[in-house]
Amino acid sequence: MTGQTTDQTDGGSANDTARATVRDIVRKEWSQFQRTNNEGGRAACQGNWPMFEQMRSSQFLTWPQPLLDSYSHDLDEAERVGRNLITEKYGRMMASTAPTEFHANIEPYIPRLSGERIALQERIIAMQVAWAVDFRERYPKLGRAMRVLRTGEDMATATSFETYLRGELGTYSARTLDLYAGFVDGLAAQGRNLTEETIGNTVRLGGFADLAEAETAQAA
């Protein structure tokens, strides 16, 4: 089943606050994304604001307000001290996709994560990969449009869902990560699937009524 997202909950003022926070977060991320340098020059996706807005909003519209507020503060604090969380996220992914370059040129310059933190991140990642597997089994056509799932499938030109999530979680403050862990634990306790809810937002923002309609519309 698809559970409620932030965008679907009752209460107009709460919805308005959440949507405004999501818009603000996505704009902050876009600004940092524009200042992220890529080997070989600027990536095509850095010029595709509509796609970036749709994909990132789809994720954040599932989040509760305290988590949104905490991550928004992370982005503000990063700007204050001269960090770029988007650059760091992609840099952390290179631990899998380009390990030699990562260890030589990136790892020494980004915050080192404790063993306790890594363990928490890996627990979250395992839950989310399981949700993604479940989603792909139930919506195979939409699933084919997703990233490959596991780090073992990474290539220099293709980053898996697992590796991407590991990079992203690694940029969160301790407070944001703790709130995020509570969020995913709460979803699991309710039998909800975060991949389903996120992609549900994606297809609705893309003009479909729901996941079933979007699945039917995909090419065989």
UniProtKB/TrEMBL annotation:
Lineage top rank: taxon: Bacteria
Pfam assignment, any one: DUF4125
UniProt-recorded name of the protein: DUF4125 domain-containing protein
